[in-house]
Amino acid sequence: MAGFALTVSKLANGQLKIQWLGQGVGTYEVWTSTDPYFSPGDVGATLLESDGDLSYQTPLDLEAYYRIRAPGAVEPVSTTVGQIEYALYQGYTKLGVCLVSSVNSWTALRADMKTWPNQGYLWDPVAQTWLTNAGLNGILF
Description:
single chain, 141 residues, three-stranded antiparallel β-sheet
């Protein structure tokens, strides 16, 4: 989502730190949601903090997304940053395909990688399950 830029980093103390540049206002609202496409104030979004700080720290969670609202700024809402934790498994791991990428099939993904994986699965974020074995026959994602 368009908006002013946020940076996110993992601190040595296990906290997640979100930072942003000043937008010429005195108050910044930190919002969170489990929906990566949320807007501040949406149903399910939570206001965590409202003050003049240009950063926010939070414990690492399994999955959370954050946006900053700067009431009165020329660009009043930030981009979205998030934290997603998932397990890595020997021999394979989950790969995300960018929605604006030209890679839109198993064949294209294999051709784009240095080492050729031998199978892939389509993740359904709504159902939170793997849908399709997109194996060597080039099934489209």
